[in-house]
Amino acid sequence: MKFKRKLYPPKNHGVIRSSGKKEIDLRSNFQSIIFGDGETLPHGKKILLRVFRLDSNRKRIKCTCLSDLSLEPSDECKFCLGEGYFWDEHWKDSYCSYVGADGGLSNRTRMLKPGEIRTDYKVFYFEHSEEIKYCDKIIEVKLDSEGQPVVPYVIETIYKPETISVNRSDYGRAEYISAYCKEQDSIREDY
Ligand SMILES: [Zn+2]
Q1: Where are any strands of DSSP class E within 6-145?
Q2: Cα(104) to centroid of ligand 1, in Å?
Q3: CA atoms in the 13 A half-sphere facing the CB of 36
């Protein structure tokens, strides 16, 4: 089967060093894969990033529904949707994949030995400039078969980053961001 269009950035998508040697420009290749570049199709998918507002001490700003005594939010709160803190949501393009210590999802049907715990992770990759925080949440919404969010929006899964890794390369500059989320800690919305 032959593709008529280019699936991935062309091989010469690199930077020329002073030595004349050509090297991969990871940041630019990553951006081409996620957003497309005219020659390459965009491979990212739409997700929502729930960004929590911080005060001047970099603490989350409490919603008025959060009880001072129990520190429990109200599930019915229309402002924070039960988070207890104020947030804003932004559409982002991301690429994600599953990783697992035992080979990931392909081994999910395998029986575990007593005492073993299966930890599947979902990794979301973001552009180098994304300022994702540990208190933020990554939300997968229902997409149609062409990749567009179904309207009205339907939340499918809410993830909380467990490890955020800024992947650096050229002179230590950030090339792209990985956010590792534990699959078993994710919240599936019932609807
Ligand atoms: Zn609230």
Answers
A1: 14-16, 22-24, 45-52, 87-100, 120-127, 137-141
A2: 37
A3: 11
CA distance 31 to 15: 15
CB atoms within 10 A of CB 100: 16
pLDDT of residue 9: 60
SS3 state of residue 190: coil
pTM, rounded to two decimals: 0.84
**CA of residue 191 to ligand 1 center, whole Å:** 21
Mean pLDDT over all residues of the chain?
Answer: 86
For β-strands 87-100 and 187-188, DSSP reports them as unpaired
* Residue 71 vs residue 154, higher pLDDT: 154
Residue 51, pLDDT score? 97
- 50 C-alpha to ligand 1 centroid (Å): 14
**What are the phi and psi torsion angles at 53 (to 5°)?**
-75, 140
Structure confidence at residue 191 as a pLDDT band (50, 70, 90): low
Per domain, the residue ranges of the chain are 14-104+119-188
Q: How far is the CA of 62 from the centre of ligand 1 (A)?
A: 8
Report how far ligand 1's centroid is from the alpha carbon of 82 (Å): 6
